[in-house]
Specification:
By secondary structure, this protein is α/β, with parallel strands linked by helices. It contains 12 helices and 12 strands.
Length: 337
């Protein structure tokens, strides 16, 4: 099998690229990434010399370029991870999220349709369901209720992808995953930011009361789920992907401090994010029933693995905390009171 993977230099996409080649899910993987602030070719260094790996620096919003790429590469499937995925960035500057997440997905869908691509998996997020009251969990038919430009852009791209199945019979499936964590995650999301700050004895900024609940999914489990949908998912269907681990953000931060041996006095409360969803919750029942997939990594073990990786890759953290990210980090996170 030959795959085109968009966003394959980012956190989740690079994990999928590495696993696809190491686990022999594919013989050839073409990694397409624009290499914006969160795209890092170091993330795919373990497979850089693999004979089945190739990299193309390109913008998914370039419809002509995407069409030419798919015609040239003629993959068996496109797995679409590329996105502007940070909620805070979408709040500060929503145009990038709308342009990449919606227009970029449109460009890819059009290119796939015109090139006769056999399979297309669109990777999305549980944030499209919005805040869910206890005790409910979102299944794939749960109403969409977005709260940020990021989640709205992803919901729009989900619907656009599904419309290409209905209108053009493009073999599209959509996955909606909960909060990912693991090695190589860019340190703007909760877990890598808190680990990075704890290791540097910097304040750990917690929004509001810290009782926002998220479901946590180890990145390798997510990639296995995407592969399961690629192989066994039905066209025109949505599949939720969760880690079966719901925890308040403050509890996650405390576990990180405990695991790193740092004091809770490093916790710093900051003004809550505008439109901050209180609780995400979803069920994997459909995915498990149809593909047999289940998460393998328990949270405490996954957290230890993640902390160990960041502890032994401090130079990676230093490199990504430079340039554009350094300015954003200092404005929004560093020593925030």
């Amino acid at each position: 099998m030959k795959l085109v993977v968009t966003g394959g230099a980012g956190f989740i996409g690079s994990c999928f690229v590495r696993m696809a080649l190491h686990e022999k899910w594919a013989d050839n993987v073409v990694n397409v990434d624009k290499l914006t602030y969160a795209g890092n070719l170091e993330n795919v260094q373990p497979v850089a010399e693999h004979p089945g790996y190739s990299f193309v620096q390109a913008d998914i919003c370039d419809g002509v370029g995407m069409g030419e790429l798919l015609e040239r590469e003629a993959p068996d499937a496109v797995v679409h991870f590329a996105a502007e995925s940070h909620v805070d960035r979408s709040i500060h500057s929503p145009a990038a999220a709308i342009h990449t997440n919606f227009n970029g997905t449109f460009s890819l869908l059009e290119a796939a349709r015109r090139s006769g691509i056999v399979r297309f998996v669109h990777v999305s997020t549980d944030e499209v369901y919005g805040s869910i009251p206890v005790p409910y969990e979102a299944d794939e038919k749960f109403p969409l209720q977005t709260s940020s430009p990021y989640s709205a852009s992803k919901a729009g791209s989900d619907l656009l992808a599904l419309s290409y199945f209905t209108t053009y019979e493009l073999n599209v499936s959509v996955t909606r995953a909960s909060n990912n964590y693991g090695p190589y995650q860019f340190p703007e999301k909760l877990i890598p930011l808190m680990i990075s700050n704890a290791l540097e004895d910097r304040p750990l900024p917690v929004y509001g009361d810290g009782q926002q609940v998220r479901d946590w999914l180890f990145v390798e489990d997510h990639c296995r789920a995407v592969h399961a949908v690629l192989k066994k998912g039905e066209p025109g269907e949505i599949y939720n992907v969760g880690g079966n681990c719901s925890l308040p953000n403050l509890e996650v931060v405390r576990r990180i401090l405990q695991a790193t041996g740092k004091p809770e006095t490093l916790i710093t409360r900051v003004t809550d994010r505008p439109g901050h969803d209180r609780r995400y919750a979803l069920t994997n029942e459909k995915l498990t029933r149809t593909t047999g997939w289940e998460p393998r990594m328990d949270f405490d073990t996954g957290l230890r693995v993640t902390i160990d990786w960041y502890r032994h890759n401090r130079s990676w953290i230093d490199r990504v905390k430079s340039g554009e990210y350094r300015r954003f980090y200092e404005l929004n996170y560093a020593d925030r009171k």
